[in-house]
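SAMPLE LOG
Freezer: B-3
Tube label: C17
Construct: single chain, 237 aa
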Amino acid sequence: MDKKLLVVGAHSADFVWRAGGTIALVTSQGGSATVLALSYGERGESGALWKEPGQTVDNVKRIRHEQASEAAAILGATFSCLDLGDYPLVMTDAALGGLVERFRDLQPDIVITHTPKDPFNPDHPVACQVVQKARLLASGAGVASAFQRIKPPDLYFFEPHQPELCDFEPNTFVDITPVMGQKRQAMAVMTAQGYLQSYYAELASRRGNHARRISGMEEVKFAEALQRTLPLVVKSL
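STRUCTURE (predicted):
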């Protein structure tokens, strides 16, 4: 397997909770994975760090960068951040152009990002919208164009924290049983949001149960749910 995976999160820790197992699975099978954060989540996603006396924005960003880089490395991925600021996340034309260039440089086969709707987080839908736009621009909307274009990558949404209220419809379950240990290790690094570690470990177990019931594959113990956004094109069923 030589697939290239790109995971784009609004904040630097989003990839760990929602797609950490999928990332580790891809890299363990010989693929490559790139994690791109649009912001560090220094304002709205770093509550534990702000409890430290004399804390500063620059120091929070530094810690978040170190933690995300370490967590990505555990999963076999690389991490980078556009540092656009959060709460609110604002995408400028220049930021969009930079994201399009990332798409063209990486030429990913698969892209995973947030759902278009999230009533609890103002930054997640912004990230989803810009990722979809960058994908279309980089691929020339799937047709020949006057500028360099890439093969249109598959697009998935990862599971939000409140799936029922985000119109999330899981139609793909990824068996992350072989790499669940890596996901746990990566989550443990993200101390700024330590309260999410047990939540997403339990969610992986529940999704594993769903995957077993759907497939009959009794070996599946842990899974991550994704929503595939585009139809499959096949030569036979």
